[in-house]
Specification:
This protein is an all-alpha fold. It starts with 7 loop residues before the first helix and ends with a helix. The protein is elongated. The chain has four helices and no strands.
Length: 102
């Protein structure tokens, strides 16, 4: 499993949510605000990493929208909404895993 890098990855998720008006689920917000990584079960860690990947993919689409050529920008514009929706789904999945974990 890839390594969780704290606090860079939680910051990446929070910033992506802030830029696109994605509300953080009530149980996810405190997790992302921690200064040190909490102990996580494997399913929670996996869901957290998936949120990180969704935020990273959203950043890439934003970068392509701003700095690519016309073809790249057209593709990025079409995928941006899908990337935001993917981040929302991943945050919901993380919230579900947090609710299930002891």
């Amino acid at each position: 499993m890839p390594k969780i890098i704290w606090p860079e990855q939680p910051l990446r998720i929070r910033e992506a949510c802030d830029r696109h008006g994605v509300p953080l689920p009530a149980d996810v917000a405190p997790l992302l605000a921690l200064r040190t990584p909490p102990p996580m079960t494997a399913p929670v860690a996996k869901a957290f990493l998936r949120c990180t990947y969704a935020a990273r993919d959203l950043e890439r689409a934003e970068r392509d929208l701003r700095g690519g050529g016309p073809q790249t920008e057209a593709f990025a514009a079409r995928t941006l909404a899908r990337r935001v929706a993917a981040l929302r789904r991943r945050l919901t999945a993380l919230s579900s895993e947090l609710a299930r974990s002891p």
